[in-house]
Amino acid sequence: MRLVERLEEVPSLHGCALVPTMGALHEGHASLIRRAAASGLPAVATIFVNPTQFGPREDFSKYPRTLEADLKIAEAAGAAAVFVPDASAIYPDGIDAAKREAASWPLPPAATEPRLEDAARPGHFAGVCQVVARLFDLCRPAVAHFGEKDFQQLRVIMQMVDSSQGRWGALRIVPGPTVRERDGLAMSSRNRYLSSERRDTALGVYRALQMAMSAQRPATAESLMRETLEQHGFEIDYAVVRDARTLMPVSGLETPCRALIAARLPEVRLIDNMAMPVWR
Fold first, then answer.
1. Fewer CB within 10 Å: N-end or C-end of the chain?
2. Is the pLDDT of residue 279 over 70?
3. Where are the domains of the chain?
4. SS3 track for 227-238
5. Mean pLDDT, the chain, as a whole number?
6. Kind and range of the H or E element at 95?
7. Hey, what CATH topology would domain 2-176 get?
8. Which of 14, 26, 29, 124 is catalytic?
9. Are β-strands 143-147 and 172-176 bridged in parallel, bridged antiparallel, or unpaired?
10. Residue-wise burial string across 162-194, b where 16 or more C-beta atoms lie within 10 A, e elsewhere
């Protein structure tokens, strides 16, 4: 496995299977790297904590940076290379210029219309699209793997690629299922912020999704999720059932749906989602 700081040094990696990450890797990331490696293409993981997708009161400076451990995880999962660019490789005009550019970045509908992460974290998806587009420009992947845990982000990236008019050739976005701990908690780099006594409380998100699965209608599912989250002491950003393709409110009972949650404890904000049964 190669550690790469300037991808132009390794043109043979163009046409790779890309796994973009911000580091602090866990089994969820490893599963994406394994899927990328199994494609027969060179699997390339990227590690870059992107400053333009963090809001002014968010945790950019505190975001976990564990490069040595990340490289071991990536190698064990089958990565051919790990691309660890510095900020100047991603934003050659500097971070301040990049943040100004992100403010006017063209966004697909999934990044502006659902009123989910786009409402809770203004400017977040502009930074996400900006950095992912830059990584695609540099790496020229044939496929890119993204986890379903950040489901709105996945839909945003898919729409960005679909509307790119061939900027990245025939690039395909491949979703990977959410990987969970044995007790159901979705794996996340931010789970390490949870104190031991908060661990069971955090399971309220998974329990809320499980309650939604038992509902007979979207509105009932939303009520059950909110009730469960409140019982666990969460501050709720959203707990909704949406059209799985557009992330807009459900218009028909036979629409494939996704339940999506974002909720806060004092030390961490958790997101999760789950495919819902088709209601008839």
1. C
2. no
3. 2-176, 189-275
4. HHHHHCCCEEEE
5. 93
6. helix 95-102
7. Rossmann fold (3.40.50)
8. 29
9. parallel
10. eeeeeebeebebbbbebbebeeebbbbbbbebb
SS3 64: coil
Mean pLDDT within 119-131: 95
Lowest mean pLDDT: which of 78-92, 149-163, 189-203? 189-203
Phi/psi for 30 (5° steps) reads -60, -40
The CATH superfamily label for domain 189-275 reads Pantoate-beta-alanine ligase, C-terminal domain (3.30.1300.10)
Structure confidence by residue, pLDDT tens digits, 50-91: 999 998 878 788 889 999 999 999 999 999 999 999 999 999
Residues 6+ apart with CB under 8 A from 111: 118, 125, 126, 128, 129, 152, 156, 159
Strand partners, 186: 180
Cα–Cα distances in angstroms (integers) from residue 66 to residues 32, 47, 188, in the given order = 18, 10, 14
- If you search the block for the tokens 């990044």, which residue do you land on? 111
Could you report the per-residue pLDDT of 221-235, keeping only the tens digit for each?
A: 999 999 999 999 999
* Predicted model pTM: 0.94
State the Cα–Cα distance between residues 121 and 133, nearest whole angstrom: 20
**Which pLDDT belongs to residue 105?**
83
